[in-house]
Design brief:
420 residues; alpha+beta; 3 domains; 7-stranded antiparallel beta sheet; two-stranded antiparallel sheet; globular; transmembrane; membrane; transferase activity; transferase; Putative glycosyltransferase AER61
Length: 420
């Protein structure tokens, strides 16, 4: 694909790492009252909407209908709609919508106490945690979105960004990749030159440049040119059925992207991947719960590294031991980032965000480091070596975790303790 459009403005350096082509924000069209009739007869031929395309957890359907009133109306009028029971819950909302009332939110955090210095009451603590890591976080980001480049006519370009350019959405974005200056500097600020990225719209350059207060690698699109394609490729599949394409695929071409999203960056200040300040005593966010909901067996995923350090030396032996138990659906996946090696709070906080139980290794004499570790500058270091684990102890801990899951009130296949 090689397209060229007139570029009357130039956006300052910003690297679009992953581009979701096609219907990122699809127009949802429901058939009119007569379009599903055959030749004027009263015989229904097909539903007014392809409901099978709504691939969501059953619990999420009311929230989907709330945000898509056109589909809700079609469902109400369509005798073939399989979601009629959810039409009674159309007030249900995620929490970030402007019209969403607190009592109709998908969920709300639980706080056991109000941490001194953060909040004076439990209610204040809940509100803080909701804004730190729940749909309140999304709502705050959406409130900050500004239009930096306004289209003059239909079909023109546009650019909207949240504060500090941490998230941006563009339409009809032109990028010239005929002469990309790629090098080994992951934080290169000069990837795009003047005239190589832009579009046809009225740019408020002064307001755009004023958002550079948090200009830093991996924290703002003002400066970031580093790709996360490999690390997050599986995650993107939760948002689109379209192919995920890296910009490198378009080297030597000029491209016009109909719609593009510059996502929230992993290392941005107060992000949800790194640098997440969390008030103590609170747990369970609807955002994390909604993202991870699925049904079925107890799934055990072993994160395996293919890097030099922090590998599980006997991972196949551990996985095979679990596979002998019919209770589990076990898989090993390649994960290229950090493990809990003397850094317990990292994954404890992730569990707290999701509102789930957390178990870590308990007996130090049953974990076996390969050596003392080889940090390039600090010398001995536990994160720069590999580990083997006692198989029997590993299975015991996984069974403890499985017992906790299977005894949960919402687990659809509850078992009694003695079944283990």
């Amino acid at each position: 694909m090689e397209l060229s459009i007139h570029a009357s403005l130039v956006f300052p350096t910003a690297m679009l790492i992953l581009v979701m082509l096609g219907a990122l924000f699809p127009k949802i069209v429901a058939r009119g009252p007569d379009e599903h009739l055959h030749n004027g007869s009263n015989v229904l031929q097909e539903p007014r909407y392809p409901y099978e395309s709504i691939m969501l957890s059953e619990e999420h359907i009311p929230y989907f209908l709330h945000n898509n009133p056109g589909i809700a109306t079609a469902c109400r009028q369509d005798p073939l709609c399989p979601y009629k029971k959810h039409l009674k819950k159309l007030k249900a909302c995620w929490g970030y919508e402007k019209s969403c009332k607190p009592e109709n939110r998908f969920g709300y955090p639980t706080c056991d106490y109000a941490e001194i210095g953060w909040a004076n009451t439990i209610e204040q603590a809940q509100d803080i945690f909701w804004k730190q890591a729940d749909f309140g976080y999304v709502k705050e980001k959406m409130k900050d979105v500004k239009n930096h480049c306004k289209p003059k006519n239909a079909g023109d370009s546009s650019l909207e960004c949240s504060r500090y350019l941490q998230y941006c959405k563009a339409a009809n974005l032109y990028i010239d990749l005929r002469h990309p200056e790629r090098n080994h500097d992951r934080f290169n600020e000069d990837f795009f030159k003047k005239g190589q990225i832009g579009g046809h719209c009225s740019m408020n350059t002064k307001a755009f440049l004023a958002e550079g207060q948090q200009k830093s690698p991996l924290q703002s699109w003002y400066k970031s040119t580093y790709g996360y394609g490999d690390l997050f490729s599986e995650t993107w599949k939760a948002f689109t059925d379209y192919e995920i394409i890296h910009l490198k695929s378009y080297d030597s071409k000029r491209v016009c992207f109909k719609e593009a999203v510059f996502t929230l960056l992993p290392r941005m200040r107060f992000g949800l991947f790194y640098n997440t300040p969390l008030i103590s005593g609170c747990h369970g966010t609807g955002l994390f719960r909604a993202f991870s909901q699925h049904d079925g067996k107890i799934r055990v995923t072993i994160l395996a590294r293919t890097t030099e350090y922090r590998k599980i030396l006997n991972q196949n032996e551990l996985a095979n031991a679990l596979k002998t138990l019919p209770l589990f659906d076990v898989q090993i996946v390649n994960y290229k980032y950090k493990y809990n090696c003397k850094d317990e709070r990292c994954y404890l906080d992730l569990a707290r965000l999701r509102g789930i139980h957390y178990i870590t290794w308990q007996q130090k004499d049953k974990v076996f480091p390969q050596d003392e570790g080889h940090h390039p500058t600090l010398g001995k270091h536990p994160k720069f070596t590999n580990y083997a684990f006692d198989v029997e102890e590993f299975v015991r801990l996984v069974l403890l975790a499985a017992d906790h899951v299977s005894q949960h009130s919402k687990w659809p296949f509850r078992r009694k303790h003695d079944e283990f």
